[in-house]
């Protein structure tokens, strides 16, 4: 097998090699061309000229949107794609194919034919920025990591009890002092990601995890550990999510959180109760647990509707009860992680779009919890290994039949223990990045190819080669264009 990650769907040849001019012809896919030129400089230390040469880019509208065809012959390399996304995937394959001993303006490549497209549309990675502030260059590194392993989505968990790392024009006191990104910083990051075919999914985690709301505007949002659903509070929430959608105008998906909320507190929140009485809801006659679940679903539905009205698709954690499934908009994408609040089969039966975010082995909690690479490789988008003691699959795990409802999977980093385990937060953040980078290869392989292409030993050999190229790419940050 060629040393490629993820491994292409169709590969022919590879037994012989050819030396070709290190140049790109044409300007058909300018962003993919720029990625190829920049990454070649950063990985191999050589310059690629944009002129008639070894690589020719060709438009082929018959190919899938993320697909590409790569033909390496003695005459040159032809990369065909229908879109920039497909071309970006193709140039990454080419970068991984290149021999590291580049000289005389030439590259050595195996003679081969590759035709490729991913099995999963959702190939994602999440990073927690709220518990431990990540300096901006680290986020650029995560974009490079995603691009190099053809991971399509970088999900950024911007807010939690520890800090609110987003800017807000309407409610500036939400932003935690010295721990938030400016609009200009985020616009630069968004542009960098877009140029490399990576989409950022921003998350504001509500209605729980909301300390910043209580500290900054407790008179509006409440101070009891959950967002009040008074009309003033909900109108403010809509404003905040409207700002988020505007700032991340390039993003198709917006994450609204929706997990681990103390929903029973709504049953005693007068602002919430008054708002629902005004809507004709019999909040005084309902069982308290049923009322709490109803109010939870109403909150999720209202924020989802705001996100949808902004032309985006809402994303929410598994966190609501199956009794209120009918209240949650079916265009919402649900990240199934613990099979405790609601099981995957229940969400599946209700018709939701699903993303596999299984706690084990896809969570990284630096440095106390992470699973070895072989276990991440053994995972598939149809497997869950809950760790919550209340999950019905705690000891057995869950594996479902293949279904298009599960659109892919995600690797997730949480920063709960970095402040107490590292003297320097930056050291902990870098350790987290290294753990994520190692496991990203297995995430990439298992979401690009739902069926395993080889055993772990063969995968590990490919991983060793490609990860060394990634190390060079990240090390040479100064070469970013």
Molecular structure report:
The protein has 481 residues and is α/β, with parallel strands linked by helices. It folds into two domains: 10-117, Chitobiase, domain 2 (2-Layer Sandwich); 122-471, Glycosidases (TIM Barrel). Helix content is 37%, strand content 21%. The protein has 14 helices and 18 strands. The protein has an eight-stranded parallel beta barrel, surrounded by six helices. The chain has a seven-stranded mixed β-sheet with strand order 1-7-5-6-4-2-3, with helices on one face. It has a two-stranded antiparallel ribbon with strand order 16-17. Strand 2 (23-25), helix 1 and strand 3 (49-50) form a beta-alpha-beta unit.
Chain-wise SSE layout:
Elements: E1 10-21, E2 23-25, H1 30-44, E3 49-50, E4 55-59, E5 68-73, E6 76-81, H2 84-97, E7 106-116, E8 122-128, H3 136-148, E9 153-157, H4 183-195, E10 199-206, H5 211-221, H6 231-247, E11 253-257, H7 270-278, H8 288-309, E12 313-317, E13 333-336, H9 344-350, E14 353-356, H10 359-362, E15 363-365, H11 373-378, E16 383-384, E17 398-399, E18 406-414, H12 418-421, H13 425-448, H14 456-475
Parallel strand pairs: 2-3, 2-4, 4-6, 8-9, 8-18, 9-10, 10-11, 11-12, 12-13, 13-14, 14-18, 15-18
Antiparallel strand pairs: 1-7, 5-6, 5-7, 16-17
């Amino acid at each position: 097998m060629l040393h490629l990650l993820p491994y292409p769907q169709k590969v022919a040849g590879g037994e012989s090699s050819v030396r070709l001019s290190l140049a790109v012809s044409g300007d058909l896919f300018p962003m993919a061309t720029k990625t190829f030129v920049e990454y070649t400089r950063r990985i191999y230390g050589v310059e690629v000229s944009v002129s008639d040469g070894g690589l020719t880019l060709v438009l082929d509208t018959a190919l899938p949107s993320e697909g590409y065809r790569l033909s390496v012959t003695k005459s040159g390399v032809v990369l065909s794609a229908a879109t920039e996304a497909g071309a970006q995937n193709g140039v990454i394959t080419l970068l991984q194919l290149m021999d590291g001993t580049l000289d005389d303006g030439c590259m050595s490549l195996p003679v081969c034919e590759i035709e490729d497209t991913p099995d999963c549309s959702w190939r994602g990675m999440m990073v927690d920025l709220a518990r431990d502030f990540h300096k901006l260059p680290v986020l650029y590194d995560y974009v490079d990591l995603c691009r190099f392993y053809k991971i399509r989505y970088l999900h950024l968990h911007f807010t939690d009890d520890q800090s609110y790392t987003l800017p807000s024009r309407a409610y500036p006191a939400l932003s935690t002092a010295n721990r938030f990104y400016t609009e200009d910083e985020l616009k630069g990051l968004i542009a960098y990601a877009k140029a490399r075919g990576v989409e950022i999914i921003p998350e504001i985690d509500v209605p729980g995890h909301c300390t910043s709301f209580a500290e900054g505007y407790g008179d509006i949002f409440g101070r009891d550990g959950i967002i009040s659903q008074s009309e003033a509070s909900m109108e403010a929430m809509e404003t905040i999510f409207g700002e988020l959608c505007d700032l991340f105008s390039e993003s198709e998906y917006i994450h609204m959180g929706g997990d681990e909320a103390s929903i029973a507190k709504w049953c005693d929140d007068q602002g919430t109760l008054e708002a629902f009485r005004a809507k004709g809801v019999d909040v005084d006659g309902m069982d308290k647990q049923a009322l709490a679940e109803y109010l939870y679903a109403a909150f999720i539905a209202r924020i989802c509707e705001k996100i949808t009205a902004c032309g985006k698709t809402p994303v929410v954690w598994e966190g609501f009860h199956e009794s209120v499934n009918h209240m949650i908009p079916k265009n919402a994408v649900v990240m199934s992680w613990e099979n405790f609040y609601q099981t995957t089969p229940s969400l599946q039966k209700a018709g939701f779009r699903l993303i596999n975010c299984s706690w084990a082995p896809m969570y990284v909690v630096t440095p106390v919890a992470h699973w070895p690479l072989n276990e991440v490789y053994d995972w598939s988008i149809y497997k869950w290994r809950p760790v919550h003691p209340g999950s019905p699959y705690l000891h057995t795990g869950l594996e479902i039949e293949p279904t298009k409802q599960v659109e892919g999977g995600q690797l997730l980093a949480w920063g709960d223990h970095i402040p107490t385990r590292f003297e320097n937060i930056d050291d902990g953040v870098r350790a987290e990045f290294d753990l994520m980078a190692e496991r990203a290869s297995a995430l990439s392989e298992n979401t690009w190819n739902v069926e395993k292409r080889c055993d772990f030993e063969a995968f590990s050999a490919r991983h060793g080669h490609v990860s060394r190229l990634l190390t060079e790419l990240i090390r040479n940050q100064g070469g970013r264009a």
